[in-house]
Amino acid sequence: MDPSRFIRIDATTWQIPAHSRMRVPGVIYATEALVREMDDKVAEQLCNVACLPGIVEAAYAMPDAHWGYGFPIGGVAAFDAEAGGVISAGGVGFDISCGVRTMLSGLPRAQVLPVLEELADALYETVPAGLGRHGKIRLADRELDAMLAGGAAWAVSQGFGHVEDLARIEEAGCIAGADPDAVSRRAKERQRAEMGTLGSGNHYLEVQYVAEIRDPRTARAFGLGLDEVVVTIHCGSRGLGHQIGTDYLREMLLEARAHGIELPDRELACAPIRSRTGQRYLGAMRAGANCALANRQIIGHLARAVFSRFFPGCRLPLMFDVSHNTCKVERHEIGGRVRELYVHRKGATRAFPPGHPDLPADLRAWGQPVLIGGSMGTGSWVLAGTRADGERAFASAVHGAGRAVSRHEATRRWRGEQIVEELRSRGVLVRSHSMRGVAEEAPAAYKDVDAVVEAAEAAGLARRVARLAPLIVVKG
To answer: What predicted TM-score, i.e. pTM, was given to this entire model?
Structure first.
């Protein structure tokens, strides 16, 4: 995009003034270089989001923003039900509650390197990954509903993990207000045998090590030690979440029309929060979020079983688990008044500041861990929520590097086998069922994650704590 189209507020803040049918301005947080890398659709979609009823303050784009379905990926928008605000399936995304979980091994990298090949094989054999892949868990109807209502807390009750894990998961591992009855039979069938599986696309399980520490005190509070190994899982609600999005987009098109809402783009199909469709979607979306939390909890349990075989006594305690495709009811101060808002984060991570009452007591002084996935050839980051010069974008931050090249274009440019060999030469072992999938996720298909998190810190969205580098990548 051409930055000259926007009003530059400061080094990392760009404004699109409200015009035409926009109810609020658009705001992009990024360096000039990152703005130039963004496709023009980011600004177009941001302006479209700003047209929706009940939107508050501004429509925001994070430094990793790129074109998405309706909302830009890396988009944040909040709506007030009291002002006729809406809920949009496109503002949550099809992979409901896709997110990241990081577990701590306490093991120095030197202790893991001698068994890296065997460890990679064991993780690949234990954690099913790939499009439509099934696991060993198959849920009956009653169990499915219990999982959708209970999230990670349900998974723990079934023996997957430990009770103490729940304190380190957003909403203590269970999103309130989930309604399994609002989830279609088709969505449930798609998930019946997919619990504990990674899926495809950019989802992964990685064994990483702490390559750099930028904030030693916060890193110590989070349990991160230089050169120590961690396990990170990135996945979501699998086929169930996708089906929920598909089901409700159709309903929301009709609902928007019935309420006289003029949509600048059909992909922004929405429903008033207080409408029957709006409430049913919220119930289904929260059930999808619980599915994702349960799924990551189970995968974490499977990874622990593998590590305990190789390293007896290694428990892999959970550092944190947070989602980046959600709509959450939160209280934020707008114009000197605290209001209850429905905050859509699509490809954006909640980043509560130090002192926030919803954070675990032992992390509250440091701010929320913000887990940023990079590419399998570069690395990832742990950030922390920060006050900086005040809360920005409803306490939201980036979620990853952001794609620079489409999946189709990536498969045209790169071969999966070539990428696997290149990464092996750099000490990164890749295990995947699909070489096409590896090509789609080529490291060069993503933006520079270091530049993205530097921009996030400069914009006051979050602060850098530690950089993680990959050793093992398990993908679909």
So the answer is: 0.96
Domain that residue 358 falls in? 3-404+446-475
Say which residues have a Cβ less than 8 Å from residue 245's Cβ, sequence separation at least 6: 89, 92, 93, 94, 96
Four-point Cα dihedral 129, 111, 118, 203, nearest 10: 10
Closest to 53 (Cα-Cα) out of 224, 262, 258: 262
Please indicate, yes or no, if residue 440 is contained in any of the structural domains: no
Our CA dihedral for 114, 116, 122, 126, rounded to 10 degrees, sits at 140
Q: Closest Cα partner for 288 from 420, 136, 98?
A: 98
pLDDT at 134: 74
pLDDT tens column, 10-67: 999 999 999 999 999 999 999 999 999 999 999 999 999 999 999 999 999 999 999 9
| Annotated active-site residue in 234, 301, 324, 399 | 399
Structural domain contains residue 418: no
State the chain's mean pLDDT as an integer. 95
Inter-axis angle of helices 238-258 and 276-310, nearest 10: 170
Q: Under a CB-based contact definition with an 8 Å cutoff, are residues 396 and 461 in contact?
A: yes
Element (H, E) at 26: strand 26-29
In this prediction, residue 389 carries a pLDDT of: 54
3-state secondary structure of 427: coil
The answer to whether position 287 is within a domain reads yes
Quote the strand ranges of 99-223, DSSP E: 99-108, 204-213
CA 84 to CA 174: how far, in whole Å? 28
- Catalytic residue list contains 408: no
Q: Tell me whether residue 451 is in a domain.
A: yes
Looking at residue 46, its amino acid is: L
CA–CA gap between residue 139 and residue 158 (Å, rounded): 12
Angle at 460 between CA 458 and CA 466, to 5 degrees: 70
pLDDT at 89: 97
Query: Are the C-beta atoms of residues 226 and 213 closer than 8 Å to each other?
Result: yes
CATH number of the domain bearing residue 291: 3.90.1860.10
- Give CA–CA dist 469/260, Å, rounded: 50
Binned average pLDDT, 10 residues per bin, the chain of 476 residues: 96 98 98 96 98 98 96 98 97 96 98 98 90 80 98 98 97 97 97 91 94 98 98 96 96 97 96 98 98 98 98 98 97 93 98 95 96 90 83 94 89 94 96 92 92 97 97 92
Which element (helix H / strand E) includes 262? none
- Per-residue pLDDT reduced to its tens digit, 410-426: 999 999 999 999 999 99
Who's near 31: CB < 8 A, 6+ residues apart?
11, 12, 63, 451, 454, 455, 458
Number of structural domains in the chain: 1
**C-alpha to C-alpha distance for 114 and 109, rounded to whole angstroms:** 9
How would you classify residue 153: left for phi > 0, otherwise alpha for psi between -120 and 50, otherwise beta?
A: alpha
